[in-house]
Design brief:
single chain, alpha+beta, Alpha-Beta Plaits, 4-stranded antiparallel beta sheet, about 35% helix
Length: about 100
């Protein structure tokens, strides 16, 4: 299992237009092979937005990062300072803290 955190800032886009963009992308992202879940993040006070993605494995995450959906989003004029970090999951400790509920040992 692999966790990815993507962050970015917004430029010259209103709240309703940004929300419409996200809602149009949500079903496309949800259909990505190997994606277990995505949590959308938003901190308007610091102009920091993004998502936390839980992937079945690093390969699924890498395929997503090479996809047209990511390329199109990253090149959108309202999206700036996009950054991605990924982390292997430490399964044993995560199970103790309920981080892997429903994931077989």
């Amino acid at each position: 299992m692999h966790i990815q955190v993507i962050t970015y800032s917004l430029k010259d886009i209103g709240k309703s237009d940004y929300e419409a963009l996200c809602m149009s992308l949500a079903p496309i992202i949800a259909a990505q092979p190997g994606l277990i879940e995505k949590v959308w993040l938003a901190d308007p006070a610091t102009n920091t937005y993004g998502g936390m993605y839980k992937w079945q494995d690093r390969e699924a995450m890498e395929a997503f990062m090479k996809s047209e959906v990511v390329h199109g989003f990253a090149s959108h004029p309202a999206i700036v300072n996009l950054a991605s970090r990924d982390f292997p999951v430490w399964a044993d400790a995560s199970r103790v803290t309920r981080g892997l509920v429903g994931v077989p040992a």
